[in-house]
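Quick one, tokens below:
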């Protein structure tokens, strides 16, 4: 269902603000009750039968104290020109929809499209070296012909260098925040954040007035990884947020690249270690990275980049099962699709889809591309 009514949006926000109810529980509640409004209309006996919902959470929901919080949050979003993207909305990022831990709702401001054809996460240490700054700026310049949406975390160091280089080179950039949209952190990056609204913007899963508590940064990193076709680590120490982002990217079956660095520089230890342990591919150029992750090189001059399928003759999918025909039709329509997106669009479980794709590959109908992507032959 789509969130077409104010009431449904308010009640969903209320569920999110209900103590003891996490994003997985919100989905469970909505799935069992039909919508968020019906959750608050349900009785105690019905709620405690829902998997993951205990007596304490059920009683808290039935108090309905969070409804007023949800209504205020919704009205505050309207007043501040904040867009709400619920997980069943058309505007919700396709790259996040199939992930087990994706946010129930995203808050955003700016001018950008989550679902552009190419996205890249660029992350790294806050203590960036001059080498790291130069490499980051060079990467952004090389990305311009690809019209990719550059995603980072608005932090000191590599993040802010990437955002500012995008602004300088006319490339859209998205800052994923660990706070609410009303509280840019660090405050020193406020002007850059405002400038990003003109070609890019800000996004978070947190309510407007949320402070950037330490625990929210790893959660922020999972959104960067989930929104990105690939994550590129420019510089990193042996520990840090960048390596957490890499873990999420690997869990989501996304590509990871790392820029090799000076063996004597602590800022390069993390990248060199990722490459050594085969947790990341070595980054040598944007062109080679683009080829590895399946970005086509037939570059459009506009932001709407379409995949070049060679204008094939119309295909008839007779002789295939219903699910095979469904997958082939999707690939014909989209050109090239990532495995997770294909699973979500077709509603076929990943394990079953993997076997189905293998059979179609054996039949000479599809081809496997780098970055867990598939396309018609």
């Amino acid at each position: 269902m789509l969130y077409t009514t104010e009431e449904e949006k308010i009640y969903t926000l209320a569920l999110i603000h209900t103590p003891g109810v996490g994003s997985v529980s919100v989905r469970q509640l909505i799935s069992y009750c039909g919508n968020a409004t019906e959750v608050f209309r349900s009785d105690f006996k019905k709620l405690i039968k829902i998997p993951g919902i205990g007596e304490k959470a059920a009683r808290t929901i039935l108090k309905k104290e969070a409804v007023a919080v949800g209504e205020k949050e919704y009205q505050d979003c309207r007043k501040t020109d904040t867009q709400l993207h619920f997980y069943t909305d058309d505007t919700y990022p396709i790259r996040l929809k199939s992930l087990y831990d994706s946010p129930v709702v995203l808050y955003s401001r700016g001018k950008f499209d989550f679902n552009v054809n190419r996205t890249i996460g660029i992350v790294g240490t806050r203590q960036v070296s001059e080498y790291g700054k130069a490499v980051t700026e060079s990467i952004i310049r090389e990305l311009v012909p690809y019209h990719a949406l550059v995603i980072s975390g608005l932090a000191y160091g590599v993040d802010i260098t990437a955002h500012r280089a995008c602004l300088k080179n006319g490339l859209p950039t998205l800052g994923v925040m660990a706070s609410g949209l009303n509280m840019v952190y660090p405050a020193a990056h406020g002007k850059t954040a405002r400038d990003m609204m003109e070609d890019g913007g800000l996004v978070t899963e947190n309510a407007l007035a949320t402070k950037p508590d330490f625990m929210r940064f790893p959660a922020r990193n999972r959104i960067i990884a989930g929104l990105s076709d690939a994550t590129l680590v420019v510089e990193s120490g042996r520990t840090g947020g960048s390596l957490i982002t890499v873990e999420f990217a690997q869990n989501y079956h996304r590509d990871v690249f790392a820029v090799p660095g000076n063996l004597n520089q602590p800022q390069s230890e993390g990248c060199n270690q990722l490459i050594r342990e085969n947790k990341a591919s070595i980054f040598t150029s944007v062109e080679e990275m683009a080829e590895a992750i399946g970005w086509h090189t037939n570059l459009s001059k506009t932001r709407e980049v379409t995949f070049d399928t060679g204008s094939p003759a119309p295909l008839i999918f007779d002789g295939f099962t219903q699910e095979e025909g469904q997958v082939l039709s999707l690939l014909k329509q989209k050109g090239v699709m990532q495995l997770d997106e294909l699973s979500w669009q077709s509603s076929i479980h990943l394990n079953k889809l993997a076997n189905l794709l293998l059979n179609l590959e054996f039949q000479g109908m599809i081809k496997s591309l780098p970055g867990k992507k598939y396309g018609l032959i």
